Amino acid sequence: MSELIVKPTQSANEDGIVLSVTPASAGWEYVGFEVAKLTEGQVLRRETGRNEVCVVLLSGRADVETKREKWQGIGLRMSVFEKIPPYSVYVPNEDFYEIRALSDIELAICSAPGHGGHPARLIEPAQVGVETRGYGNMERQIHNILPEQEPADSLLVVEVFTPNGHWSSYPPHKHDKANLPDESLLEETYYYHVQPEHGFAIQRVYTDDRSLDETLVVRDGQTVLVPKGYHPVSAPPGYDVYYLNVMAGPVRTWKFHNDPDHEWLMPKPRK
């Protein structure tokens, strides 16, 4: 299996963690990502330390508490494939978060370096920007959970729904050079769900010189690391694909560069 694919464990640890990516394990500097599955009544408590954190309630309902805030009974969808925006909680560095599961829940814990610039806050579904991107069989639904227009120090978080038979993160693009204003350097993780669960997604990760050139078969519950290069995704016929993206780098902005071979597929601006 490719070193770019991170598989979940067979069983959760005492904190409910079933998948973990750290900067050290990924071989990069900024992005951390974990998935926790808690049973009803289970509690997860963590200190944020030097990192800011965005906890995305992928499914289920929970109470969440930080140093200065408390939110009770948050959560709306029971499956990501309901395709409604999630509840999320932003927590700064040098804080904590405590999550009490009111049902069985799945959490995505997204982290990156924090600088203490923003207070903890609830991100409600109504605050999540929803858009349709692409056209034809490149069309997909986007939920902008923590875009660059919203306050944070490092993190960018978005989820994408790719209908079966469609492509997303397409035309292929990359963001691996600190070359602003044209391109930003951002590490990225893709966390996948597939419906039906026995299906798969296809993801390419490749560079211009093909020093990195992989075609990945990704299963439900797995994560793909994108340290550099272009990274398009395909949802095979019959299988809808969901993924949660976490990005971070030295500058918190998403500026990408399209693969010149495929840039002609970009929609033309309307006159």
UniProtKB/TrEMBL annotation:
Coiled coil stretches, renumbered: none
Molecular function per GO: 5-deoxy-D-glucuronate isomerase activity
Alphabetically sorted, this entry's keywords are:
Isomerase
Highest taxon above the source species? Bacteria
Q: Which Pfam families does the entry link to? A: KduI
Q: Its Enzyme Commission number?
A: 5.3.1.30
Q: InterPro entries attached here?
A: Deoxy-glucuronate_isom_IolB (IPR024203), KduI/IolB_isomerase (IPR021120), RmlC-like_jellyroll (IPR014710), RmlC_Cupin_sf (IPR011051)
The record, for Gene3D superfamilies, names: Jelly Rolls (2.60.120.10)
Which NCBIfam families does the entry mention?
myo_inos_iolB
Name of the protein in question: 5-deoxy-glucuronate isomerase
Recorded name of the encoding gene: iolB
